[in-house]
Structures are given as structure tokens and as C-alpha cells.
Structure prediction request, 180 residues.
Amino acid sequence: MLTKTLYKDVQRRTLALLNQAGIILSESEQAAIEVADFGLGQLDRQGLQLITYINNNHYCAKELVLFPNQTCPEHKHPPINDCAGKTETFRCRFGKVYLYVEGEATANIKAMIPEASKVYYTVFHEIELNPGDQYTIPPNTLHWFQASEEGAIVSEFSTTSRDEHDIFTDPNIKRIPEIK
Prediction:
């Protein structure tokens, strides 16, 4: 479980990585950095730091910050009412990110699957994103991603984000866990 002290420390680490990449945030954006440990208590292994610039009924823009070898667990953005689910485009800004989506499995993936959750990773079609590369993930598509050893920053441009509806393959995940 995340404590307030750990949360603030992770926000500072996130800001340092953003500064290293030359991405400047306003004071209000710095204070709003979201730390997602998915309720697993393994933040440096399975977690994600996010800055949401805008999220409305039409579109969303975020920065996704991953520490070295940090993984965002496998999930999908399902249909909600009349919406087919979230379409998202990832554009790598810093570092290297390994993105895994549905499709033909890559023989020797570069990511290191978190051992404690290995059974919950099921898609292995690898897309390597380096700075300037981008990839669009269709709605309702299982995917997960991991930073290389230097960490990574990915700009996400998408349809409206409804994180509370995301479906994770690991039933232990809580997308919006408590902070104590």
C-alpha cells in the first residue's frame, strides 16, 4: 500500500526523469502527478506514473512515466455504453519502451515479466518504441508495456480515458488503490 511519504518521493523521482527528458511541467501539473502501484505493493516492478494534461468527452492527453524496467500490467480498455473502448496512441519521448499487444508472439521478448504475476501476462507481440516512434492500440485490445533499463516516457494521445473501467488480467490489481 502506498503511503503519503512514498507517494511524494515517487512524484519527485518522476519529476526528475521528466526534467532529464526536457519535459517541463507547471507547478499544478507537478502536484497532480499520479502514482499507480495497482495495489500490488511492487511499484518499482509493476507500476506507472502519469500526468494527465486533459481528459474530456472527446480526447485525452497524458505523459506515462516508467522507471527503469518498470511494467504497466496487462489490461484492456473495454467498450462502455456506445463507446467501443479507448483508442490510444503511444509516442515514445525518452528511453525505450517494449509494448506488447495481441498478435503473433515474438519469439524472444526483451521485457522481463514480473515473476510474481507471470501467469497474468498473455500477449507477447512485441513492438519496440524508441524516441520518436509511435504505435496506436485499438480499443478493447490486451496490452502491457515495460521500460528499458534507463526508464521511459511515453506521450499518450487517446479517446476519453476511463481508467476505472480498465480490465486487468491480474485479478489482484486495483487500478485506483488507497493511499495511507
Observations:
- The CA atoms of residues 68 and 150 lie 5 Å apart.
- The beta strands are 34-36, 48-55, 60-66, 71-76, 88-101, 125-129, 134-137, 143-158, 167-168.
- The longest strand covers residues 143-158.
